[in-house]
Amino acid sequence: xxxxxxxxxxxxxxxxxxxxxxxxxxxxxxxxxxxxxxxxxxxxxxxxxxxxxxxxxxxxxxxxxxxxxxxxxxxxxxxxxxxxxxxxxxxxxxxxxxxxxxxxxxxxxxxxxxxxxxxxxxxxxxxxxxxxxxxxxxxxxxxxxxxxxxxxxxxxxxxxxxxxxxxxxxxxxxxxxxxxxxxxxxxxxxxxxxxxxxxxxxxxxxxxxxxxxxxxxxxxxxxxxxxxxxxxxxxxxxxxxxxxxxxxxxxxxxxxxxxxxxxxxxxxxxxxxxxxxxxxxxxxxxxxxxxxxxxxxxxxxxxxxxxxxxxxxxxxxxxxxxxxxxxxxxxxxxxxxxxxxxxxxxxxxxxxxxxxxxxxxxxxxxxxxxxxxxxxxxxxxxxxxxxxxxxxxxxxxxxxxxxxxxxxxxxxxxxxxxxxxxxxxxxxxxxxxxxxxxxxxxxxxxxxxxxxxxxxxxxxxxxxxxxxxxxxxxxxxxxxxxxxxxxxxxxxxxxxxxxxxxxxxxxxxxxxxxxxxxxxxxxxxxxx
Length: 528
Description:
By secondary structure, this protein is of the alpha+beta class. Helices cover 25% and strands 28% of the residues. The strands form 5 sheets. It has a 6-stranded antiparallel β-barrel with strand order 5-14-17-16-15-18. The radius of gyration is 45 Å and the shape is extended. Mean pLDDT is 81; it is low at 1-49, 134-151 and 515-520.
């Protein structure tokens, strides 16, 4: 009787799991189905549940997750495949046939549909509840002796940690002979001048502040070109003359407005005189004053229109004095320079939308430098720049940096840097290429240590200063330039110390051993 009850219990649990699976599409995971079966299992009479290790008659596997859903918790989580270990077909090869029999199988990817992220994005989220939570270590408020910090900055560029107490330790050897036996070698820290340059590609361009692309202020026909391409011009020189009907009409409007002002001024004076003699009415006098104000406003508008067309105040006054109605509009140079572009042909139509002549002051030029994003930290405004351009390889020109872009080119990962150069001889031509050297350090005295003397202690770069034949102190360093066999030291050493070169790694190892009580050297804390 007990055996029969056991078989009936297995069939009921299997049916419950099978019915739950049939009610869901193949892409759904069996998580809810096994939980329903688990609920039935919990309600079964005590002592009659079959063992989870026994082979499942229905599915043909031992430790069957469909019949024993509690295995999803007890067998742990497969972090490599993102599912509980009990239903991981890639770790448990005996489950494939069972899943195939249930109609839950993705042939394209070789795993159950209920676990296939490629076919069912997000399907694995239902198993996250089985993933064990990360243990959080208990703390008693004391600082940890070991910390793991992930930084993208290379070690040699990292500043010393403010909370690190490495330089508060001292290593004492058992005797002076120990240093020779373990191979410690020392040398004095040296000071030397440092000149450092950064070589970058360069492109020459016109100074945008002294370059102008000019077009007539009104449409018209080109009737005269005063200067040829490459000619030197002064400020105010006439470059191109355009016959513009718009200018002629504007001058005529000005003369007409000026005549009306004079007419209504006289009329206003006359009406005021008649009003005083009671020969006119107040209304006539007010009308004359109003017409005078309107005429003066029209005159101001006409004068402003001519100013907008490029005429100076003296030229506008000359139009009124001489009755000038000429339609010749002159395009003039806004500053002294060279004609660098000329697209003016006599007889062609010119409009205000299309430049016909360009002028630039080539005595000063811009040089645009492309600095790699990783090196931009070395560049500052005001630094000298040495330039060599194609065609003048034997000559070096000097300039300085005036601007650094805040934008990084998304394709080249470079930053635009502008430098300015004097160009009295005309060697620099726009759009020519060259090579520039940015002087990031210029003959400044600096402290240098051999690279072999610098060790990464875990959070800081350190060098070991020799205090005596048996005592050594770690010094936290902030490093600067990589000078080949040496590093520049920005902080940590003054330049008059004696440091360990060969064998510094041994002292670092002993320091770390001493911090956990296993060093063969004596490690104390400095009393300072």
